[in-house]
Amino acid sequence: MVEPMDAYEPPRYDPPLYDPPLYDPMGEVAKGGRILWTRVAIFGGSLLLVFLLGRASAPAGVSSSEFQKLKVQLAAATDQIAELKRVPSTPTPTPEAKASPTAPPGPQEYVVISGDTLGSIAKKFYGDSTLAHIIAEANNITSPSSLKVGQKLVIPAKPTSNSTATPRPTSSSKSNT
User: Fold this and answer.
1) Residues of the chain with pLDDT under 70
2) How far apart are CA 113 and CA 117, in angstroms?
3) CA distances from 61 to 25, 51, 74 (A)
4) Distance of alpha carbon 13 from alpha carbon 49, whole angstroms
5) What is the DSSP string of 38-79?
6) How far does Cα 31 stand from its chain's mean position?
7) pLDDT in tens, 54-66
8) What is the pLDDT of residue 63?
9) In terms of Cα–Cα distance, which of 165, 99, 162 is closest to 126?
10) Half-sphere exposure of 110 (CA within 13 A, CB side)
């Protein structure tokens, strides 16, 4: 006689009633964080050991007499730096000195520095920036933006007040008739 077979029923999956253990990167099960704190303690102890070995093997340091010598050298160097800051390394003549009453009435030479414009140079030498065209004409400068640092300019004598009554016309103010 053949016995009847029951229909197949797959086993039921019941989730576990506990949390699965946590795994750390080294593949060890971490229980309550004991492994982490153990590693922290080992790292701290190693760090302390390295520090103490470094202190024990380090040289004694600088003697007090050597320290005093270095302190005196530092003070002397500081004084020397302060002196060098007060005295310019290359004396540069100032335009005011060139434009003084004792300056010769003829043309003078000027070296362009950073930030100079024809107007600012005219202001330095003539006291009037509108006289920049005189400097431009004396040096054959057609474009005010063509000034270069280090360029030598001839500064003509200051014109008399009669010749400065009418400023030179620019190309934009000329009539085309």
Assistant:
1) 15-35, 87-105, 161-177
2) 9
3) 44, 17, 18
4) 53
5) HHHHHHHHHHHHHHHHHHHHS-----HHHHHHHHHHHHHHHH
6) 53
7) 888 877 777 788 8
8) 79
9) 99
10) 30
3-class DSSP state for residue 37? helix
**What distance in Å separates the CA atoms of residue 50 and residue 57, rounded to the nearest whole number?**
11
Taking CA atoms, 48 is separated from 55, 60, 68, in Å, by 11, 20, 33
pLDDT of residue 46: 95
Please report, to the nearest 10 degrees, the dihedral formed by the alpha carbons of residues 69, 71, 76, 78 taken in order: 160
Helix then strand count (H, E) for the chain reads: 5, 4
Helix, strand, coil abundance in the chain, percent, nearest 5:
40, 5, 50
CB 126 within 8 A of CB 108: no
Residue with tokens 């057609």: 142
Per-residue pLDDT, 148: 87
Phi and psi at residue 64, in whole multiples of 5°? -65, -35
